[in-house]
Structures are given as structure tokens and as C-alpha cells.
Design a protein that fits this description.
About 35% of the residues lie in helices and about 15% in strands. The protein is of the alpha/beta class and about 130 residues long. It folds into two domains: about 35 residues, no CATH class; about 70 residues, 60s Ribosomal Protein L30, Chain: A (2-Layer Sandwich), CATH 3.30.1330. The protein is elongated, with a radius of gyration of 17 Å.
């Protein structure tokens, strides 16, 4: 095992092992349990909202805009990979600042100045 000697490995190995042994076939459920466990460890208190909980049915760029409006966001950070398929004008038409970034830590994050929320957009497969 390449990381067995890494600092803190023993402290968090079980968390990672549990993720991969989880029998739940739903990747979003597994990922959210893992994310929430890591947030607890790091004492991160940011609220998480899944897009599926908002009842928004629009598609494509309009879906992003509608999600942003629903949670009170004023800025959408995205990677440059959205060029060519994302309708950038929809953001400005709805009073949302579109910031493009090559910084991977900022890609696909929805930020709110007045609402401290991460909105995770996912598609559930049944």
C-alpha cells in the first residue's frame, strides 16, 4: 500500500475503506456520505443542497440559471470547458455574474454572497 506510511493514514484509512466497501449502488448516496464525513472531520458547517431537492425541471444552461436564482446566488464559477455549449448571455440576462476560471478548486462552484451554500448539481439514476 503506497500511502500506508503517509501522515494521518491510520487515522483516516477506515473512512476511505468504508467508502469503497459500501454496497450502495448509488454513487451520489455514497459520495454524499463521504463528503459529509469529511466535512464533519474538518468542522465544515456549510449547508449542502442537491439540485434534485429544488424541484426545478428546466434543462441545460437554463437549469443552471434557475438553480442559481432559487438559492439566491449572484455568481457562477465555471471552467473554460463550458465554452461552446453554455449560453453565457442567460447568466447576465438574469443578473448573475459568470466567472470563468482555470483554477480547478473553483470549477463548477456556485457562490452566494448572502447565502453560504454549496449547491451540488447531480443527476440521479434509477
Amino acid at each position: 500500500m503506497a500511502y500506508a506510511c503517509a501522515p494521518y493514514y491510520a487515522q483516516y484509512a477506515l473512512l476511505i475503506e468504508e467508502y469503497f466497501k459500501d454496497p450502495d449502488p448509488s454513487l451520489i448516496n455514497r459520495n454524499m456520505r463521504f463528503i459529509r464525513a469529511v466535512m464533519e472531520i474538518l468542522d465544515i458547517r456549510t449547508r449542502i443542497i442537491t439540485s434534485s431537492s429544488l424541484g426545478i425541471t428546466s434543462k441545460s444552461t437554463q437549469l443552471l440559471v434557475d438553480l442559481l436564482k432559487e438559492i439566491g446566488a449572484d455568481t457562477y464559477l465555471c471552467g473554460d470547458g463550458a465554452c461552446g455549449y453554455q449560453q453565457d448571455k442567460l447568466f447576465s440576462d438574469n443578473g448573475i455574474i459568470l466567472e470563468k476560471s482555470l483554477d480547478a478548486s473553483k470549477v463548477s462552484a456556485i457562490t452566494c454572497r448572502t447565502v453560504r451554500t454549496w449547491a451540488i448539481h447531480s443527476r440521479r439514476t434509477i
